Amino acid sequence: MRCLKEEFFKKLAKKVALELLGQYLIRECHGFKVVVRIVEVEAYLGAKDKASHAYGGRRTKRNNAMYQRGGVFYVYKIYGLYHCLNVVTGINNSPQAVLIRAVEPIEGIERLRKNRATKTDKNLTNGPGKLTQAMEINSSFNSQSVENKELYFSRGEKIKINQIIKAPRINIDYAEECKDLLLRFYLKGNKFISAK
DNA sequence: TGTCCGATTGGT
DNA sequence: CCAATCGGACAG
What we know:
- The mean pLDDT is 96.
- Helices cover 13% and strands 29% of the residues.
- The protein has 4 helices and 8 strands; from the N terminus they run H-E-E-E-E-E-H-H-H-E-E-E.
């Protein structure tokens, strides 16, 4: 098992985002193990990025994890209903992160089905709020290191650059000129890409 | 203290 | 298209 160390994340968010595609995310606990493959991500760049929670250097209770070192999770609740999973990148006090938007089940799909009532398996993990629900990821992982026994990454196959689609990020209409930046990355033709 | 709203989702 | 649903951001 080649577990990704914190070191992997101490780079610019855009670079980490591209490199995370194709890597595995593993959720393990007493009694179960779920392995998924990352197929869609978004990079959030920091103080100058109007789409980011840290725009303008805002530091609040919610986004505090973004100001920690690269290699910790940033998990927040949205719409009072769902959780979004991010990994902080870069160095301390450089609030960048990568949002995990969609994943493909590899192992332990029964557990995912148990956690989300859906008609199709595609609908288990093809969105940021869906995958956290299916994988039992909540705020308890906020600020936790990626070198963690219950939620961590491991090496997947290398992805060829021509298999990666670059697109504008989703649901950030408020971000003015930043909304058109091509910071959403996903695997071409993958079945588990989020809607839109 | 009070009001407003979202890096989403599911159901019309 | 719109409601669900609530912690937290922010104004006063």
